[in-house]
Design goal:
Elements lengths: L1 H39 L3 H19 L3 E9 L3 E10 L5 E12 L8 E18 L9 H8 L8 H6 L1 E4 L1 E13 L4 E13 L2 E3 L4 E3 L2 E13 L4 H13 L6 E3 L2 E13 L4 E18 L4 E10 L2 E6 L22 E18 L13 E17 L3 E12 L4 E2 L1 E9 L2 E10 L4 E9 L3 H6 L5 E5 L7 H7 L2 H5 L1
Parallel strand pairs: 4-5, 4-6, 9-11, 10-12, 14-16, 15-16
Antiparallel strand pairs: 1-2, 2-3, 3-4, 6-7, 7-10, 8-9, 12-13, 13-14, 13-15, 16-17, 17-18, 18-19, 18-20, 20-21, 21-22, 22-23
Amino acid sequence: MESKKETAPRKKRSLLAKTGRVLLWIVASLIFLIILALILIQTPPVQNFARKKIVSYLENKLKTKVSIGKLDVKFPTALSLQDVYIEARDKDTLLYGGEIKVDISMFKLLKSDIEIQEIALNNITAKVKRLPPDSTFNFQFILDAFISNSTKPSSPKDTASMKMNIDRILVNNTRIVYKDAFTGNDMDLTIGKLDTKITTFDPSHLLFNMPSIALKGLKGYFYQVEPSQKSAEKTAAEAAAQPESVLQFLNKEIALSDINVQYKSDPSNINSSFIIGDATLHPKTFDLKNSIITLNDATIANSNIAIETASPAPVKKSPDTILTVAATPSFKIISESIVISKSDLKYDDRSLPHIPKGMDYSHLNLKDLSLKATNLQYSIDTTIVSVQSAAFTDQSGFILNNLTADFVMNPTGVSLQNLLVETPGSEIKKSAVITYPSLAALQKDPGVLGLDIDLQNSKINMKDLQTFLPALSAQT
């Protein structure tokens, strides 16, 4: 009887030991399989297999041509796609990329958190279009493919559950083509190198904080043309139907170098080119709603800026025609300090004739411009600035060795207070105020020019005076 009693506990202990060994073996096997999977997913054969599966899935999902040359996964921090191609429905390229690399915390994806340490785009070409008769962008089919299975829109709570954070974006040799007939925008820009740090990335609230942006080698053009009437009407209707949302952009430093961009606006009659050797901006605020940029300071060197403008041609319309023009807020720049060195500036108002003699303020061509100024306020028709020093050579032959003044220019005149002008033959001090009804009226009749000049202890070369104030030549 005693032997039977001892055998039962032994059998129980043996069963528990066997069960424990089996569970331990299962856990160890699962850990081994996970480790093996993590190792295998980083090997070329498995990554190639995954690449083919991803391409097959995307082609079936998007109903378009998709190709990925290489998939490189370094778990758990990095994912790289190389030689990526996605074709738009019009058979044109939507996206082609030498490499799209993302450093991401894959473990945090399990918590619905997208934490990206770095996004690198190398040798990318992206073409975004919205052309008649279709009123949608050429990438809309991608959005439709991935939201078509969900008939119920996500609630604000669901949207808030997904958090996204991006620390840094690097772009190298990337081209962006953007054509939108509905807004009249036509852009083709190539980015040599872009490096930006990001502390706040909140697309849901249109809030972006990028403390530093370094951009080098930006080339190309940005044109604005007149949109078609139906396009303009539809775009206006869509904008009116949407609640107002304003992009909030925060930044502390923008460094630009090797920039060559042309900007042209047919509706505004502006044609300009910006060749920037080096420029550094320290912004204070960006009021994008009211088109006001406020800077702490700005420095520009080794640059060439040309601006051409013209008054719009009169619109012929019948008595029954009702013309509606959308009001556009004027663009304004405010800066506490600005420094320009070794640069050229050209301004040409094609709507006004050239003045045969003297400095033509409607057709300036300044060479070797250097400027130190404070309290700048600039808009399309008004400039207010306190000039600490300035020097340049104009196409008229006028040479400015130095200028200090509190300068105000508006549509009806120019005012210079606390004035000091130094040229090879003159030293002009005190103040000068020039008034006229408008530049166009002044061109037609120089007699409308009003002068209030107080020049004490000044030495004025008549040639300089007639060059600087060409209207005086017409009166003598």
